[in-house]
Amino acid sequence: MQKTLPRWASRNPLRNSLPFWLILPTVIVLLAIQVYPALYTVWLSLQEREPSGWRFVGFRNFERLLGMGLFDESVGHSIVFLVGYASLTMVLGFIIALLLNRRLRFSGLYITLLFIPWIIADIIAGLVFRLLVIPDYGLLSGILQNPAIFPPNGLSVLTAVPPRPWFGNFPFPPAPAMTFLILASAWRALPFITLLLLAAMQTVPHEIVESSRIDGANGWQVVRYIMIPLMLPTLVVALFSLTLSGMNGVGMVFSLTGGGPGTSTEVLSYLLYSIGWRQLQFGRAAALALMIAVINWLLIAGTLRMTRLKERNI
Question: Number of C-alpha atoms within 13 angstroms, CB side, residue 106?
């Protein structure tokens, strides 16, 4: 028999408002660290700092950004970086996950060693990779500065001039510094992506894989028609993580290349840092932050769209 509450209990204001008081601390934290900064960024993007204070300028900050040649260049650099970084990390992570999924001896030790780059901060990882290619005393400088390997005068990764673009002003092929930045960033993100894909592989039923092999499927066919479709949700999550971290990360660029040589590695996130903290143009920096947020949403929507189309075709 269902018990009924006394009339005084059902009319108790404290009892009725208890759920609100329980979630109130979380609501306050979200308002303080998410809602307020977002609204303040929108307000700041419409202002310009003057000696007398802030002045409302409307969308002039956005117009100035779109009129900057450096903005267009940074968009191109960001595209090259994101495509190279996400593709390299996903491919290497998938291959390493396949090897670890075979349950090799000392696989636990391999996973532990593999996870070391993930616990290193972006700034530290960038400094370490920078020390590898510093001329004269870098660990790889003897190879890079060898004219027999990189004619005619060797290769200085951090100062080499970008090659001539193949497609108008689009920065491809990338400068050696951008290629090195992609390699360093992929090394930094590889452990997490590998473990994420390995966990997804281990959820694939072993019986299905064995049945397909009995039916004559080779290794590539097992991966293409069985593992990838079953791992598709995890692959989407991994691609989301790489896209967002690559679009918004600035630590590796800051410590490894500093946007150079020239502006050949100045991606949008580093341009935001330069405008905001070097030039102290906070209104323009806020406008760029909003534009980066819109780009993030478009990237996520595009990834979801392509994933749905691919899922239908599998």
Answer: 4
Residues of the chain with pLDDT under 50: 1, 8
Q: Tell me, what's the pLDDT at 143?
A: 87
List domains and CATH numbers for the chain. Answer: 7-45 (no CATH), 62-313 (1.10.3720.10)
Reduced to 3 states (helix: H, G, I; strand: E, B; else coil), residue 170 is: strand
Distance CA 264, CA 56 (A): 34
pLDDT number for residue 7: 57
pLDDT at 196: 92
In the numeric block, the tokens 């530290």 are attached to 124
Closest CA to 48 of 59, 34, 35: 59
| Angle at 240 (CA atoms; ends 234, 246), nearest 5 degrees | 135
Does the predicted model carry a pTM greater than 0.90?
Answer: no
Q: Taking the CB of residue 65, how many other CB atoms lie within 10 A of it?
A: 20
